[in-house]
């Protein structure tokens, strides 16, 4: 994290003075972080190119999509961008699958923190559209203020939205919430990390501290290790990652970085084309 949490706090608080969203990855706050982070990531990529050109660079640094766009289009490093939101959304979606289903396919499309699950296929049958209006209290990322989605909005988007889309769908409400909060998210994280460092100094600590659940980053380690394993062991597994589009989405340029289902093996991540995406809302976003 370039500038550490002190810089994140500025990313989140400065925009509020100008009635703009201050958030780690979205809006002007996210772009401020990108401007600090990209030059450092470009330096790291240069080191990888010079000293270990066959190595893979797996990036979690936010904003993950913009950093992937910068590195994949301006360096020769072998790189994949990661986020924990897709696996959280995918696990929530799987809870909708009927018992006894033997084959599951989940269609996921978008950019990092601007994404949707557009279909859930159970043994070849799409079930999401029939469920949406009855079960639309979707999972909420812990670092995003909870805000219920309007039923009319769900009718319009016909998909399960990423939690971060609330900063776009409900901009004014989110902005007001941020202004009214006693502390921004970065300040909360700083307090959590200070408490964690004190706890980690205790030799008798043998369990994960409960306060760690409040920090965010759920399932990061699982996502990273499973991706590395899929590359190293040539598994041909399906993972949702950030890669160049390369024709997978016909409404995006080939060199645009998208967050999409990919086949992952020793050659990296190859985006899997969606069979169809009849959704003007998503294309417009």
Automatic annotation (TrEMBL):
One of its GO terms (biological process) is carbohydrate metabolic process. The keyword Metal-binding applies. One of its GO terms (molecular function) is hydrolase activity, hydrolyzing O-glycosyl compounds. PROSITE patterns: GLYCOSYL_HYDROL_F4. The keyword Cytoplasm does not apply. It holds the Pfam family Glyco_hydro_4C. Its cofactor is NAD(+). Keywords: Glycosidase, Hydrolase, Manganese, Metal-binding, NAD. Residues 108-285 form the Glycosyl hydrolase family 4 C-terminal domain. Belongs to the glycosyl hydrolase 4 family. This is Glycosyl hydrolase family 4 C-terminal domain-containing protein. It comes from marine sediment metagenome.
């Amino acid at each position: 994290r370039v500038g550490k949490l002190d810089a994140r706090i500025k990313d989140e608080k400065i925009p509020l003075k100008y009635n703009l969203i201050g958030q780690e990855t979205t809006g002007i706050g996210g772009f401020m972080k990108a401007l600090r982070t990209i030059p450092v990531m470009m330096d790291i990529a240069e080191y990888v190119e010079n000293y270990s050109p066959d190595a893979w660079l797996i990036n979690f640094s936010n904003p993950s999509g913009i950093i992937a766009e910068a590195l994949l289009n301006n360096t020769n490093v072998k790189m994949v961008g990661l986020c924990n939101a897709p696996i959280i959304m995918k696990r929530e979606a799987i809870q909708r699958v009927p018992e006894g289903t033997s084959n599951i396919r989940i269609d996921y499309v978008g950019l990092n923190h601007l994404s949707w699950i557009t279909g859930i296929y159970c043994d070849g049958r799409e079930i999401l559209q029939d469920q949406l209006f009855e079960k639309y209290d979707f999972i909420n990322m812990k670092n995003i203020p909870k805000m219920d989605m309007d039923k009319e909005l769900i009718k319009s988007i016909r998909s399960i939205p990423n939690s971060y889309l609330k900063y776009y769908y409900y901009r004014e409400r989110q902005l007001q919430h941020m202004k009214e909060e006693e502390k921004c998210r970065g300040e909360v994280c700083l307090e959590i990390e200070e408490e964690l460092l004190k706890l980690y100094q205790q030799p008798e600590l043998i369990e994960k501290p409960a306060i760690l659940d409040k920090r965010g980053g759920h399932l990061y380690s699982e996502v990273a290790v499973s991706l590395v394993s899929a590359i190293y062991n040539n598994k041909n597994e399906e993972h949702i990652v950030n890669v160049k589009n390369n024709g997978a989405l016909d409404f995006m340029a080939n060199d645009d970085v998208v967050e999409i289902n990919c086949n992952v093996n020793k050659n990296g991540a190859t985006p899997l084309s969606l069979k169809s995406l009849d959704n003007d809302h998503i294309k417009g976003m």
